[in-house]
Amino acid sequence: MAGEREQIRALQVRVSKLETWAGPGQAEALAAGLRAVRTDVAVIRRVQGQHTAMLSALSQDAGRLTGSMAVQQADVAGLKQDAAVLKGDVAGLKRDVAVLKGDVAGLKADVAVLKADVAGLKSDMADVKAALAEVLRRLPPAAV
Fold first, then answer.
1. Is 80 inside any structural domain?
2. Which residues contact 26 (CB under 8 A, 6 or more apart)?
3. Residue 20 buriedness (CB in 10 A; 0-12 / 13-18 / 19+)
4. Of residues 4, 27, 23, the one with CA closest to residue 15
5. In angstroms, how far is the first alpha carbon of the chain from the final one?
6. Within a domain: residue 144?
7. Is there a domain that residue 143 lies in?
8. C-alpha to C-alpha distance for 138 and 130, rounded to whole angstroms
9. Distance between CA atoms of residues 68 and 74, nearest Å
10. What are the angstrom distances between the C-alpha of 64 and each of 68, 75, 76, 77?
11. How many percent of the chain have pLDDT more than 90?
12. Residue 25, by phi and psi: left (phi above 0), alpha (psi -120 to 50) or beta?
């Protein structure tokens, strides 16, 4: 049943077209169709003009962004060079700190030796004081 309805509808459409093209009012039907096509073309041209303007603006924006990107890339290249210099400086500072650590370790060892020497000298001075006190005690009293 649905198939017959579709066939009948298709025949109705074909008969409608046949009446338009072959029957009375053919010129009016063509004129109306032509006016509709012209209206559609005018709308298409208007939209095309808008699209052309938008595309032009977009192209200008893209040009500005490209120029800006070139500046940014140059800035990044400069920053990379600066970072490389800083890395070299930090490596030099690390070497210097390592040398200083070695020097401080050497100084600590020297201070330890000096402390031991000072302790020895204090002990020796105590012995010298004791010996000097013994010598002074054995001396005859001073003549006045």
1. yes
2. 20
3. middle
4. 23
5. 161
6. no
7. no
8. 12
9. 10
10. 6, 17, 18, 20
11. 64
12. left
Whether residue 25 is predicted with pLDDT greater than 60 in this model: the reply is yes
Question: In total, how many domains does the chain have?
Answer: 1
Whole-model pTM over 0.85: no
What gap in Å lies between CA 103 and CA 91, rounded to an integer?
18
Question: Helix/strand/coil (H, E, C) string of 69-134?
Answer: HHHHHHHHHHHHHHHHHHHHHHHHHHHHHHHHHHHHHHHHHHHHHHHHHHHHHHHHHHHHHHHHHH
Identify the domain containing residue 132 by its residue range.
2-138
Residue with tokens 């490209």: 66
**C-alpha count within 13 angstroms, C-beta hemisphere, residue 56:** 6
Specify the DSSP class assigned to residue 25: T
Token pair, residue 53, equals 């303007």
As given in the structure block, the two tokens for residue 104 are: 């401080």
- What pLDDT is attached to residue 71? 92
